[in-house]
Every structure is written in structure tokens, then in C-alpha cells.
Please model this.
Amino acid sequence: MTQPAVAPRRRSILRQMAKHRQVYVILLPVLLFYLIFNYGPMFGNVIAFQRYSITRGILKSPFVGLAHFRSFLKNYTFWRLLRNTVMINLYGLIFGFPAPIILALLLNELRGARFKRTVQTLTYMPYFISTVVVSGLMVDFLSTRGMINEIVKIFGGQPVQFLVRPELFWGVYTASEVWQGVGWGSIIYLSALSGIDQELYEASAIDGANRAGRLWHVTLPGILGTIMIMLILRIGQMLSLGYEKILLIYSTTVYSTADVISTYVYRKGLLDQDFSYSTAVGLFNSVVNFVLLLSANKLSRSATGGGLW
Amino acid sequence: MKLSRRLLSAALSIVMAACLFAPAFAESEGGVEGLPSELTIWSELGSWLVKAGNDIHASVAYEELERVTGTKINWIHPPAGTGVAEQFNLMIVSGDLPDIINYSWMTVTGGIQKYIDDGVIVDMTPYYDNGDMPYVERLFADLPKIEKQVRQDNGAIYYMPSVRKDDELRIWNGPQIRVDWLEKVGMPIPDTVDDLYETLKAFKEQNVSDADNFVPMMAGKFRTDTSQGLGQLLFSFNTTYDFLTDPTGTTAKYGPIEPEFKEGAAYIRKLVEEGLVDPNYVTNDRDIIDAAMIADEAGFMFNTQVTKLALLFEEHGIENPLKPIPYLRGPNPTSELAPVFYSEAGANIMGGCLAVTTKAKDILSTVKWVDFNYSPTGELIRNYGVEGVSYNLVDGEPILTEIVTNNPQYDINTASAIYTPAKVSVFAGIQRYASWKQSTHPDGVDCVVQYMSRVDQSMIMPPTSMTGDEQAEYASLMTDITTYFDETIDRIILGQLPLEHLDAMADQMKAMGVERAIELKQAALDRYNAR
Model:
């Protein structure tokens, strides 16, 4: 009599689990992985509200409330970090996001299978080079004695210090990202393209559509869902810019445009060992990210009727 | 009762008598009275010793120390190639502490006081006052300046550092020039920065090198003592990119906001503008610079640990054409001396320091072991190794053998790390110039002679200390200020911003609280001078 109303339903879930226990056992390692490596460390974020001391540990360090957040918002680098992080990502979104789509569409129009495969392989290649090596190549190629400036000199130009001029950093960084990721990024669109019903092309050809028309009315709508999903994922990572590459190619001279939140966290946390402060900055970054992801999803739902969830 | 007491006293006197003779006996058996039988020590490995097999057991000198003291040492080393500071933090967080931590305690993040307050390491002062550190006591009596540097503001002794007994050992960075090219352009060794400018210009105009990428001066990041930093040119202008004192050592100043800084920066900017300095200095590292020197691509630099490049020249089968020159004097010099601001040149103590942890199994005997490192025997072993193997007494003076100076397997630095670890400042103890001279490449010795000839160390900020709260405030101010300085000064030097921007830079630094940082530094300096 005292049994709550949900009891039968819960029992049925348990029965379900018992019935499909093999499936749940398979799920277990994945769940554990996320709990241990993704959710567990989140508790460490508590040091963002403490004055953490390595000799006292998390349990005994004194709490300071939002002091670290306040001092970050007041810091002279705050607006610059935010601007650089957003701008480098925006550059990536404007130039880096369409690039693989364009490449995929171009490849799709190719008829010679061998040529197509060669181009594909060549464009994938840079993706497999380690970031450290790519950065080393960049520093070498872009220095005043480097390959690119040698070419500039052949054509009678003045050597440009690509990695030392703040106004060039966003462009140089984005170009290198596109170069490295365009081939790999096009794979998912190529697979979406192969899923388009060939009869649609035939029908549109009969209706008198030329190549451009078919591209616009058949191909693009065919992969629009994929594009939207990729866009949402991308926006969700807006502020979580990888620090490795920037760290490897920036120098103090270009801090004004190259310093982003993640490189700042790295310097503060690992070099200056200001653990609490850098955790606070990192947490701030995550919260902004989360908000962006929510709004991107909402936008997508209202625009295309579908989102991530 | 009476009988038993008499028995006891008899037994005691026998024990005491035995104790009296113990050192003499014990030493021949391989042991010193009062020292522990076993110790666990956490310590970084020096880069040279890593070359010798990644283990301090490769160090013959420490085996000898184990034999003489009778104290077996279990070493714990952070894995080579990982950040030592990170490994140190991990050890502290884990709470799993060894008996002794050999670490750069002088510059530990947050200041050493925190580690005392939080019960990580032991305050050795009571043991010192109790006479348990006789050798350190003697060292302090002989050299009061070392006592002043080791003791904290409150008079406490928290660690025992690497002690450079002779002032020659405080200097190892300085200018080097291609003397063969000096002859080629027919100019004397530059004396002032103006001479240097003329010399570099002559190098450039007369094309002394055939190399395609020739640029007269090679340099590294502006604000570095140890990576051939371009900012070292400031020293001749009585200023630097960091804190300094006035010539009397009583007033703390921050270089970049002082008027002398403008003159120095204008000079450096002129060199870059006229193509006399490699404009890539911002991204240059030591390997790039060394490679350029070997490829005849530059004729002047500020070098550090000269032996490395000297050995590299030997590897390439080239006779080292770079020669050290005395520190450059400023324009219109008024003094015979030239100032430098290398932080390590300001003190006789540095590098690795021994601190006893609260987890030490027996604190008293561990402190005594620390003390023994500063004994004449400890000093001898650390500087010369094993008699008959790495040194012989010639007329009462220890002279290193060929096993160190001309080792068939290792280069001279690695060999000295194995046999005479005093040279590697990561291990605490006493270092002597007499030994260092014997195991150092002649080019390195030449540097010390040249640099010592007219060095002025009076304006270097001494190793002051701050309380935990002061340190936290100071660090949070200065990390932002130095970052701002780094990015702004390079843009000014490279001509991206006008020279007048230095005033705006000083104003911005004041807005960021540099004056408060100077106040803190001044207070620390006052306390240091009052020690």
C-alpha cells in the first residue's frame, strides 16, 4: 500500500536491464571511462574558489570565493584574450569551416578516379603530421631566412617577418589550420555526398538544370544536415582553442593578437604555478563554451528543425 | 641498587670512551659517527650526468661519499626530460617525502617559508644553535657573506645551498667576439658599446663572412640571462630588464621605468634597425644561435656556459675562433669597471639546496649528514672525487687526473659531473675555483679571466626573501608586468612601435602596480641588509 506510484515502472526498467545485461556490461567500461577521466577531474575545479596550496591540498586550502574570477575580469589581458580567442575561432569558422565543404564538392565533380584519389591522399597527408613538427616547419619556412621569404625575394619583394608581426598572426594561423585540416575535414562531406540518391541528379538534368544548378538544388540540400551538425559541433568548441600550436609558434612580440585563453591558462598554471587562478580562467572558458553550444543548438533547431538534442 | 648504578656509570664511560675514538675507527671502516646508515634523497640530475647514463650512481664521487660517511644514499630522480618543478609539486602533493630534498629552494614558487609553515621541511636553526652543524658553523665563520645569504630575514636556516667559495665562480655569461674578423677589419677589441657599434658596422660593411645569412650579432630572447639575451646590451648603460639596486646596494629600482633604460633601448634599437643584429632574435633559441656561430653567420654574441659551444666547434673540427672580451663599458665611461646584472652573479649561493623534510626517519642524524657535505672531506670529495682515481696530491695540492680532464669515453663536462660533482650546481655543497679551473675547457677559464678583469657587481639585486603573503602579492603583480614588458619591448626594438612608446610603457607599468612591487622589493632589500 505504501509503494509509490512509480514502482512498477522502475521495476520494469530493472527487468529490462536484467534482460539485456550483456549490453549493459559492454556499456560499463565506456561509462567508467567518462566517470573517471571526464567527470572525476571536474571536482578539481573547486580549487578555482580557493587559494590552493600544494602543501595543504584541496581539503585544507582556504576558500576565497570569486576572488580569482574578479581579478581575471579586471586583468588588462582579459578583453584581449577574449577578443583573440573569438577572432581566431571566427577566422576558422569563416575560412576553415567552408574549405573542406568546397574541397568535397570539387572532388565530387571530378570524373577521373585516379586523379581524384591522388588529390584526396595529398590533402589528407598534412593531418597526420604532428603539431610539433608542423609548428617547427612553420617557424622555419616563415622566418626571414625561410623558404617563403626566399620566394618573396626571388620576385623582388622585401622579406616579411610573418611570425613577429601581430597584425599577421590570425591570418598565418588560420592558413596553417586550413592547410592541415582541409583534406581530413572533407571526408565526412564526401561520405554524405555518396549518400545522395543518383536519381535526383538524373531528374534535375531532365528538368534542364545545368551543373551549377544541380550543385545548388541537389548536392547542397543533400548534405545540409551534415553541414549543420558539423557547424554546431564547431560552435560548441568556439572558445576551446587548442593551445599547442599557438604555444609553439607565438612569441612575446605577437602576444597582442596571439595570446588566447588556453595559452594564458598554460602560462599561469604550469609556468607560474598559479593553480587556482588558472583553474578559474579555465572554468570561465568552459562556462562561456557551454552557453555558446546551447545557443547554437537552439539556433539550429529553429533554422532547420533539427539539432544535437 | 648502588651496584647497578656503579655498573651503569662504568658502562657509560666505556661507551663514551668508545665514542671518542669512534670517528678515527669508524672512518677506516667506512663510516662517520652520528650519521644515518641510510638516506633517501630526491634530486634533479644535471644535464651532464644524464649524458653519463641517467643515474647518479654513475657519479663516482657520491660513491666515495657513501664509503666515507657510511651512509647509503637511495636516490630518487625525477625522470629526465620532464619538468622538474612539476615532479617536485607532484611529490609534495603526494605527501610521500624522502629524508632530504635537493631542490632550487631559493627560488621555489611561493617562497620557502610556506613549506616551513605547512610542515614540509624542517627548520635547521635549532640544530645549528645546538652545535650539531659544526662544519657549517666553520664555513659561516670563515665567510660571513655566505652566512648572510643563507640565513632568512628572521635569521633561520632552512636549507644549505650550493656554495661558490670563490667569487670567480659567480661569473659565466658574457660577450664573445670573432677575433679573426677583428684582425680582418683592422680594429681593436671593443671597449665601450660605441666601439662595439663601430665594430659590428665594419663587420657588415666589409663583409667579413662568406655566409649567405651573415648578420654581425646573434642574440636570443630579450629578457634572458642564460639564452644569449639581446637585453644584456643594457648592462653597459647601468640598467637592466629586471630589478637592480643603486651602487650602494640600499635602494631597489626596476630597470625598465628608469631613465637610463631609454638610452640603452635606443642603442639596441639602432643596432636592429641598421641590420647589425639578427631580427629573428625573438624566436632564436640556443641551438639556432650555436649553429649560426659555427656556420660563420655571426661575429658577436653574449654567450653562456661557453664550454658547450667550444665543444661543438671541436666536434666540427674547427678551432674556436670566438674569444671572450671584458664586459663593455657604457658611452663616455666614467669608471674603469663595467656593470653586469646577472642574478646569479649577485650571490655566492645558488642552485640545488639541501632541505631536511619532516618525514625524515631521524632528523638529527640527517641534519648531521647535510653538515658533513660542508666539511673539508666533503668539499674535497665533491671537488676532486677519489684520490688515486680522479686526483693525486702534488705538493699537497689536489690535481685532477686525465680521467677527468681527458676522459676517453665522456666529454670534460660529463666526466666532471661523474668525478667532481661540485661543478654541477644542481647538487648542494661547496665549489672551489681551483678545481673548476682544472676541469674546465681552457676557453671557459679564459672567459672568467676576461670577465672578472673589470666586472662591477655592486648594483645586482641580492637574494632577498619575502613572506608568503608578500610573495603572493609580488608574484601576481610582476607576472603580468613582465609579460607586458616582454611583448612591448620587442615591438619597440623591432620598430613596430616608436621609441617614445617607452614612456607609455612605463606609465602602463605604473598603472599595473609596479610601484607597489618596488615597495615590496625595497622592504625585502632592507631586511636583507639588516641581516
About this structure: Chain B has two domains: 31-168+347-431, 173-341+457-530.
